[in-house]
Design a protein that fits this description.
The structure is a single chain. The chain is α+β, with helices and mostly antiparallel strands. It has six helices and five strands, in the order E-E-E-E-E-H-H-H-H-H-H. Strands 1, 2, 3, 4 and 5 form a five-stranded antiparallel β-sheet that branches.
Length: 196
């Protein structure tokens, strides 16, 4: 494939092996496969049968944009986000609230002790580190609503709600994209490291 950052094709594949204990405690050799575009970008990393793929090579929009688009597809949120509905611990309480763009204080979550911090953190803590934008009063109100609706007391619980939401929303958006691409093009994008 050709990198979107460079006109030069580059595919490096690194295949070391390492020993790991299986569930019975027996040592076995696990093959690691890595495909890199640069020293910092890896479209695919595989440990034995467990494969991680970077969905950014398929879906160029932010998760917020993907979720907004996904919300408009099927008639109900539950149908648009089936994985979120089935697996998110708080989905039955308030799915619509979970699918809003919930601010997260990335800079304050630097080690395990941050999970014990009390909520609600000051508005300055929710500054968007990627864009540099300050947290608006309306976004901060969403934080308060999430904390109140789900009865969260410590930052660790807020982190878990946020993490479940991000992972499951992305899984639903990618699953929908995968299904559409398969039905229209007869190709399963999960078997490629970028769009074919």
């Amino acid at each position: 494939f050709v990198s979107r950052f460079s006109s030069h094709p580059r595919v490096d594949c690194w295949k070391p092996r390492f020993r790991a204990a299986d569930d019975k405690g027996d040592d076995r050799v696990v093959e690691v496969k890595v495909i890199s575009k640069t020293s910092e970008r890896y479209p695919m990393i595989q440990f034995g049968a467990l494969r991680f793929q970077d969905t950014a090579h398929f879906l160029k929009s932010s998760l917020e944009g993907l979720s907004k688009s996904q919300r408009n597809a099927p008639p109900t949120l539950e149908e648009a986000f089936p994985r979120m509905t089935e697996f998110h611990p708080q989905a039955s309480t308030e799915l619509d609230l979970l699918l809003r763009n919930i601010p997260f204080p990335y800079t304050l979550s630097c080690d395990a002790t941050s999970f014990d911090m009390l909520l609600q953190l000051p508005i300055e803590a929710y500054k968007n580190d990627l864009t540099g934008e300050e947290c608006s009063n309306s976004d901060y109100a969403v934080v308060a609503q999430v904390v109140h609706t789900f009865g969260l007391e410590a930052f660790g619980a807020y982190h878990d709600v946020y993490l479940f939401t991000d992972v499951l929303a992305l899984a639903d958006c990618f699953g929908s994209f995968r299904q559409t691409f398969l039905s229209e093009n007869k190709l399963d994008v999960a078997h490629f490291v970028s769009l074919p």
